[in-house]
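We modelled the chain as a single entity of 840 amino acids. Its sequence is:
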Amino acid sequence: MKRKAEKQQPAAPISAIAARRAQQQQQQQQKIQVTVPISPTPDAESDGEPPSKKARPSPAEDRKRSNGRQGTAQKKSAVARIREKKSEKQPAKQIKSKPEVSEPPSGLDSAEEASSDEESEEYTGIASDEEEEDAALDGAGDDSYESASNLPEEVENFALSKTRLNKKNVVYGNESTLCVRIKEKMNLALVGQYDIWVKRGVVSLMGAKLHPSPNVYRVYAPATHSLPVIKCVSGINGYAEVELTSCHNGIYRLKDLSPLYQRVWNSKTETAADKVTLKGSSRRTFSVLYTSSDDPLKRHLRPLHLDKKWSATIKVLSQRGGGLRVFTCGPKASGKSTFNRYLLNHLLSPAPQTESGYINTDGVAFLDLDPGQPEFSPAGEIYLAHLRSPFFGPPFSHPTLEGSQNGTIVRSHHIGATSPKEDPDHYVLAAMDLMSHYHRLLATYPQCPLIINYPGWIFGLGLEVATWLIKSLGISDVVYMSERGPAEVVEPLGQAAREVMVPLTTLPSQPTDYVTRSSAQLRSMQMQSYFHLSQPDGLSNPIWSETPLIRNKSIFVNYAGPQQGILGVMVMGSLHNPDLLRDLLDGAVVAVVAVENPSAIASQPDNAETAGNLPAGVDNAEDETMFDERDEPNADPDSSVDDAASMTEPGPTPQLPSLESSIIRTAREDLPYLFVGAGCCTPLDPKASHSLGLAIVRAIHVSARKLELVTPIPTSKIRESLERGHGIILVRGQLDNPNWAISEEYYAARAAERRHHKLVAKVKKSKASGAAGPEAEYDLEKLSEVSETLRERVRRAGNVPWMTVVEDSGRKQGGTAHREKTMWKLRKKAYPGGDSETDW
């Protein structure tokens, strides 16, 4: 009887703090792993392949029981057993976690399409929620395009908000706006994107304390990261009042271009809070969630809570004011980026001067030395940023500060890889150059504190680099993000800190419980966001375009002849045969680097430095060689090369004398291969060069001697660099191939086809019922012709180089044939002649 009563009681939501404590006590417990049978496909991996990052076990040990149906010793909560009992007649739903992904189902029933709204639904109504999870989670092997979420079988019911909305605390609300009162010590968690305006009281959000002011802040709260929590710190009569407004900036439309952006934002389906504050269907771009079970898409959502030791350390560091120079390091996935984001927002909080006696008017400098997971730039770059306002969102919501009113990139260097271990010497030189520019920034902003973000490269040579930077950068504090050591790392860091007489603070790591995107997938999302983002004049926030890059206008640049626009092409890493340069460039991501001085070329003597010595200053040669502007205007991608050549401005571009001996022209294409060094291309000296941004080489027109580039770099920035006499060099590093760009047109075609199917379903339903409306005026014959056109577009979009579309129609679900699915298999090798066909 007791056991039966236990089954009848639903499990209460668990707080994130309680769950974390329970997880620490269950470190040795067996991880839960489940698999699903799928139909055989080419290059498919075995069912026993582990996920990209293992999910942690459920924290409530007393609510777990043996799973007899699975025949294993795995544990289940009481809620899971109740659900299982209710669905005994249904086939058990099993999920196979894979490191890379397949695309959602392509087949779409018209009746199902008509039941969803493409404009406001986060995931485009392809099927039911359970079918969407199956489609997103089906593995496609290591060489597939990209993978979606790695989700366990059961979703833990986590408490997200401490406030429930009712008529008393809802001031007003409509289809786009919600104004609520939050009691002191209470909080709200939201998923989606919104603008927040604090009207009364003081609230905290991701480390920032927001006071009543006219300022409106943009918040991005995707399901890929822990959800930010709005907490009332103090208020009038015990309440704070905030207004939340929907924002339409186009980033949610990126789901039509990549499956990685699907199931990221809030769903169309109303939550419990929406039913209280809305009448009719929801149109907001955000949703208030009380617990994780309120999520209609049943994702693993967690609140973003701060550890008490983190809060105490942030408070101590912020009291240093303008003298703060903090160096944050630690193992991978230990929470370094989250800690730095909290500290950054806390320092940038627009608090009244009477609160602490100190007000930040000079902003905060952010020295990001992590090329793998940068905060304000795409992968492969390290940079120095000057920030003036808090940022609320993951890195892919602000992949660049170009044109932003909240901050600027002071200087950036292209590392050419996601890890500094590829070239530690160049990495240290670049870091020292960025630090020298921070000291120049202090001349204008003397009270500007500095946050240094070091990557998870903390063992071996990475530890030597970290200790050397601690001794050389003139920092005030060292923060290490792990209380578990290891001792062979903490002791050298402590010794280096003692030598320069600065404190070393050790904080507990705060990793994410469930990882829905791997590091490679997050880089792809950030890179795709970077190339689709723009900052129009007059707008305070950026917007994203859902147009595939293949349909964007390109920039045509001469690489040979009297009107040459680039000085050369450099390939970082090992030595490559010049005959392979075209294969290395075609379809690759390259950095657009400005050469400020001829001394940037490593062939100059005494220019090479090592990580063990301070970088010697590069002589500022008086060579004022000027380069004529070679900024090509945007051209129609369908225009001929001859038409593009006619837009080239007259005037030759002289080459640097020091480059002539280092350039090798390829025999067939006449490409300028800039080769310097012995056995490999030595990077440019950071003292005399800097990165302007990234570009994708869309095509190489050999007959016209032109490169066709797609880049979000403003033409004004390139023009300004040329007016200063800088030369432009393209640098091909070892970054991931832009697989997402290759498949964008296909996904866009499929999305257009789905929208058309939904329209056809509405028209058929309207004509069958005889109801009057706009759908009844459509001609079904013309709609059928459009369907054929869209089907042909999908076929042509799938027939592109380096990509193979594999149809999987043999999967069974519940005794019936599953809809036809599409999986991406990319065949382009990362480097010609390499053994691997993947770039992960």
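As a brief sanity check on the tokenised model: Residues 1-9, 28-153, 603-655, 809-840 have pLDDT under 50 and may be disordered. The radius of gyration is 28 Å.
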